[in-house]
Design brief:
heterodimer; A: 224 residues; alpha/beta; Rossmann fold; two-stranded antiparallel ribbon; 5 helices; 11 strands; 23% helix; globular; B: 73 residues; alpha+beta; Mth169, Chain: A; three-stranded antiparallel sheet; 2 helices; 29% strand; elongated
């Protein structure tokens, strides 16, 4: 089982993402300027400020050379998890519905949040207990999830809202407290909180590890 | 030729930056100011202005959250 972590100029959580992946699988970095996914079974697009987040967060990174392969991989059913800036990149690339806007507070928010697991029946959450509450940090300025109301209704009806901020714990003004969504096919998942920063009790929580373990379990199952 | 593209948040989308500027204007004593919205003006030199709409759709604006207007070009 091999995970790949994309590295853009300006990525800053790629090393933590690799360390988190390494707890559940083999992992390789995927350089932005390459056109090679190195045969990975899943792709993680990490947090940071890819290409300086110029224009809009993720808008330039979405056209990076490696993204051609990542988009083809996702369109063919490959599993992709976009974390924070990676979520923004996935939305800009059209792999996920919606967009991320500037926090209502206009401030950079860096704190632990409480998350509700809305859909435990996904490749990214299947190893978590249904109804689980997860304590995972957020750290972003551009995390307010937006989609038109009709799209939000559809996402909810189809189980594509995977994670929500717990009541009164929405850090950015996301519509309907949405913290993480997946694609209609269920193979692309984006979230603003950082599970890779919550994989060891040393840093306050290991609740994020379950997302990486779920992905490994889902892919192991499908390979048998 | 020189071209200018105006990109702004779509109607109905909360613009906290505009709201902050609106509150600051009120604090400065400017009465009767409302619905402040902040966008961006992109200036560029282009040889083929016919490609501007594509540039806007693919990169300069995100059509889900922003509307764009080609001012000249």
């Amino acid at each position: 089982m091999k995970f790949g972590v994309v590295v853009f100029p300006g990525s800053c959580d790629d090393v933590d993402a690799q360390l988190a992946c390494a707890r559940v699988a083999d992992v390789v970095p995927l350089w932005h300027a390459d056109h090679d996914l190195q045969g990975v079974d899943a792709v993680i697009i990490p947090g940071g400020f890819s290409y300086g987040d110029y224009l809009r967060a993720g808008a330039i990174a979405r056209f990076a050379p490696i993204m051609t392969e990542v988009i083809d991989f996702a369109r063919a059913g490959g599993h992709v998890m976009g974390i924070c800036n990676g979520f923004q990149v996935c939305c800009e690339a059209g792999l996920l519905p919606g967009a991320l806007l500037t926090n209502t507070s206009l401030r950079f928010v860096c704190r632990q949040v409480s998350l509700e697991l809305v859909n435990p029946d996904t490749p990214f959450t299947r190893s978590l207990a249904p109804g689980a509450r997860l304590s995972i940090p957020v750290k972003h300025t551009t995390g307010r999830y937006y989609a038109p109301a009709a799209d939000l209704d559809r996402l909810e009806a189809q189980g594509q809202v995977v994670l929500r901020y717990a009541p009164a714990d929405n850090p950015n003004g996301s519509l309907r407290d949405i913290a993480g969504v997946m694609s209609e096919q269920g193979n692309v998942f984006g979230l603003m909180p950082h599970p890779e920063h919550a994989v060891d009790p040393l840093t306050g929580s290991s609740d994020g590890l379950g997302l990486f373990a779920s992905l490994r379990d889902a892919l192991s199952g499908s390979l048998v | 030729m020189h071209a200018r593209v105006l990109v702004r948040p779509k109607a109905g989308i909360l613009d906290p930056q505009g709201a902050a500027a609106e509150r600051a204007l009120a604090a400065l004593g400017f009465a009767g100011v409302g619905d402040v919205r902040i966008g961006r003006l992109i200036e560029l030199e282009v040889t083929d202005p016919a490609t501007l709409p594509q540039m806007c759709e693919r990169l300069l604006a995100n059509p889900l959250i922003e509307e764009y207007e080609i001012l000249d070009g």
